[in-house]
DNA sequence: CGAGCGCTTGATGCTAGTCAAAGCTGGTGG
DNA sequence: CCACCAGCTTTGACTAGCATCAAGCGCTCG
């Protein structure tokens, strides 16, 4: 059973400075690349969010669903995946806290993907109707959300290059670089170390490889001194070398573009 | 040299029924999944478009560019691609008439992709500022354009599944199914036949294979009776069998969802 | 009619897949 | 607190799909 908590997330005008950690996560993410006015932030703070805890490896959205809400990832890792007819799974992106995995459902009625937790997660559900109302009133927020979906698409494209043209060693290195960079942007790294609660089987599904081969590549990366892994902790001793191995260029993440619309 | 024609695409209110084939292409595409009011259509018709002819295999947008306009593909095929450091090319999607290949540039300042023609093309450039103004005034058009970029993303995801998890034979079959379906939606097929001005080397770049292997797979598809190819014409004698071979399910294209926002 | 591009074919080898089994580890219950 | 179990990781042996290299063929267009 899911553990559900209904959070009263409405703040009166008198509490303009009130904050909620959940809303702040979303706001700081949007603001990272798109400056927001006080009024726009206030409007975001007033969004009702329903908090739900999710267990590891559990579906959040299933292909064919017609969701009436978007989910904001608050804690943990989740992923988007599809299955081939033979049951092979392709993970298309991983989401970290602050991401809105199915923002696309705002304008695509039927989900064409599955979304699942990787680790235990906490997600916040936001009703489509609330988001639509917000976008109507604040066109700049529409742009900010639209932009988020465009960055998601840029990540899919980079993964296509990764899987289509690079060999196993580079693919894994690239994925680790991306996670490092994105986690750093939301303050979830420390001394080139971060938590990666991802099994080798999941890495395999994300890189189009087999678990056996992922295991061997990880060993190679370790012996080459590109990563140090301890349980689910990854440390990157030499960022330069890892980015070279993964051909990693963070342009596609569109972090910190100074966007002044 | 590019052959440039500046088309005066403005129509007065007195010409509410005036049409331009270029604008109509865009309008009918948007309307396919998102009904538009007469007023919205009129506003689209008034968009200034600058028509340019492009030769085959020519870059239209380059990584690092900061475009101030979007291009609407009017004739021919184009593609989005990226290069790995070793110079290997991954094509991420193909565009057909009616598509807007770099709509993303509306909200992502720096292009993280290259866009190139495949065949000879005719494109129409639309200034960002005109699109921004349009979106401000007609929020439903914002939604329609946003939705277009979401369908693009859905195609990237399906290609990830295709390249990551399916073998060569299925990949090519899937790609042909997708092109058939999308071309049909804009009326560019006839009796299960369509024009595919794509070289085997480009098919290879699109599917993460080598040209040699693409050649062998195409021969297999032909001898299995799944496709008939004559020059650049492709005929699909048995749609059912081809979709099975390619595991093709058109859900991800989000065609004809009755969207009544 | 020759040049160039794209298509086709053959021989060979590597990357990564498959199958199988054994070690590890963390969580659970007695 | 220890024993056990399940899921994850690691290892080995073998194989397949696809890449690579190389050369010849056949259009089409100037």
Largest interface in this structure: A-B, 48 and 48 residues
Tell me, briefly, the overall form of chain A.
globular
Mean residue pLDDT of chain A: 89
By DSSP, the count of extended strands of chain A is: 11
Q: Structural class, from secondary structure content of chain A?
A: alpha+beta
* Helical run tally of chain A: 8
Helix content of chain A: 40-55%
What's the end-to-end separation of chain A, in Å? 44 Å
Classify the oligomer: homodimer
> Class of the largest domain in chain A, according to the CATH hierarchy?
Mainly Beta
CATH architecture of the largest domain in chain A, please? Sandwich
Q: N-to-C SSE series of chain A?
A: EHHEEEEEEEHHHEHHEEH
Rg estimate of chain A, integer Å: 19 Å
Uncertain regions of chain A: pLDDT < 50 for 5+ in a row? Answer: 1-16
Strand content of chain A: 15-25%
Strand order of the largest sheet of chain A: 1-2-8-4
Count of discrete domains of chain A? 2
CATH topology of the largest domain in chain A: Jelly Rolls
Q: What kind of sheet is the major sheet of chain A?
A: 4 strands, antiparallel
Protein name (chains A, B): Crp/Fnr family transcriptional regulator
GO molecular function (chains A, B): DNA binding
GO biological process, one term (chains A, B): regulation of DNA-templated transcription
Organism (chains A, B): Vreelandella sulfidaeris
List keywords for this structure.
4-stranded antiparallel β-sheet; Jelly Rolls; 8 helices; homodimer; 2 domains; 40% helix; disordered N terminus; globular; DNA-binding; alpha+beta; 20% strand; Arc Repressor Mutant, subunit A; 261 residues
